[in-house]
Specification:
Helices cover 41% and strands 16% of the residues. The chain is of the alpha/beta class. Helix 4 packs parallel to helix 12 and helix 5 crosses helix 6. The protein is globular and about 60 Å long.
């Protein structure tokens, strides 16, 4: 007889990496203030955060969260469907609708739940969802929860999207799901072309812009970047990145949002967003609307680092955003590079299969508006030293710093 726990004894890879000192996950950070952090007693420059605008430690955001705790306490203790809706949630939804350029929004407790709830509410058993192959795991899991059928198309390949759409039944509902900014590669979806092909086959478009808000389109996201917000049917965002909080939201036409509100099980059966998190996100919206210099500085930092890494001889893939992968290839070499960078005082995120294709393991780096040039120069010196030591780049190719 099979024991359901048999698979546990066969899972050895993580323990092997631990023995080698190359296990990077679930290891605690302390004294993190965004630009630097303390990792196991060592100060490191933080290149592994999604705190794109650096607002998690902004005094105004902190005060908004503290004031909300003093007024409402630490939890709402109920779902949005019943006793868990505060006026603060409704105010946040109104502000987000204006910020995204859509009629209405609906706030969930996490970004993951937002995708699960939205997709499972919209995609029925006779419907199809067509996902970019690099779309976020939460959109894939949303389809597992939905009753419809899932199809995939090659990453950012509009011709392959059309190939997939052309084979689907005319009388089936279709939802094309893409990321705006891809969280590993740092590249941007060709949104206008995707919209055009989707309309040709009567498919709706859902944009997961978790990494786009606060980054692209002057902070208003990827659809604003391309000027096509009216042509995107649903836009998803999270608070755990530029909005310096936690939670998620879906934006769209009022009737669509009303439907999701009454059909999304992850919304109906989860406790709602604490008031402190809603208040923090509202404070960030105020800052983004009135202080565009944060987005400008973010891009200056990202462009500086991208050019520095390229000058040193690293492969940064197709990144055009503040997410810049350093592609190593072999996964154990990636772990060795990660550990070596820690010793040099730089924190990155190692990403290996199945999160990347085979032999495409990488160090994911990301940048914030609050980093100063001396932080970036320290990181470039560390990459240069580690790259030469591990034969990842030619020795002394760059004399920039």
């Amino acid at each position: 007889m099979v024991d359901i726990f048999d698979k546990i004894n066969q899972f050895t890879e993580a323990k092997e990496a631990m023995k080698l000192g190359l296990y990077p996950y679930f290891r605690a950070l302390s004294d993190s203030e965004g630009v630097t952090a303390t990792f196991e007693g060592k100060e490191v420059v933080m290149l592994g955060s999604n705190n794109y605008l650096g607002l998690t430690t902004d005094d105004r955001v902190r005060k908004a969260a503290i004031d909300a705790i003093e007024q409402f306490g630490t939890s709402v203790t109920g779902s949005r469907f019943l006793n868990g809706t505060l006026e603060l949630h409704l105010e946040l939804e109104r502000r987000l609708a204006k910020f995204t350029g859509k009629e209405a929004t609906l706030v969930f407790s996490t970004g993951y739940q937002t995708n699960l709830g939205t997709i499972s509410a919209i995609v029925g058993k006779s419907d199809y969802a067509i996902l970019d192959k690099d779309a976020h795991a939460s959109t894939v899991d949303g389809m597992f929860m939905a009753r419809g059928q899932m199809k995939r198309f090659k990453h950012n390949d509009v011709n392959d999207l059309e190939r997939v759409l052309s084979k689907l039944p005319d009388d089936a509902g279709k939802l094309v799901i893409i990321d705006g900014v891809y969280s590993m590669g740092g590249d941007i979806a060709p949104l206008p072309e995707i919209i055009a092909v989707s309309k040709k086959y009567n498919a709706r478009v859902m944009l997961d812009d978790a990494h786009g808000f606060g980054v692209t389109g002057g902070g208003h996201g990827t659809s604003a970047h391309f000027g096509v917000t009216d042509d995107v049917d649903l836009i998803m965002g999270t608070f755990s990145k530029s909005f310096a909080s936690i939670g998620g939201f879906i934006a769209g036409d009022a009737d669509i949002i009303h439907y999701i509100q009454h059909q999304a099980r992850p919304l109906i059966f989860s406790a709602s967003l604490p008031a402190s998190n809603a208040a923090a996100a509202l404070a960030v919206i105020d800052i983004m609307e009135n202080e565009p210099q944060h987005v400008k500085k973010l891009w200056e930092n990202a462009d500086y680092m991208r050019q520095g890494l390229l000058d040193a001889g690293f492969n940064t893939g197709n990144s055009t955003t503040p997410i810049i992968p350093v592609i190593i290839g072999e996964k154990y070499l990636t772990g060795i590079a990660w550990a070596a960078l820690i010793e040099e005082g730089v924190y990155t995120n190692p990403v290996v299969p199945p999160a990347t294709p085979l032999n495409q393991s990488l160090l994911r780096t990301s940048y914030t508006a609050t980093q100063e040039k001396h932080h970036l120069d320290k990181a470039l010196r560390a990459f240069q030293a580690v790259g030469e030591r591990l034969d990842l780049i030619p020795a002394r190719k760059s004399a920039r710093i």
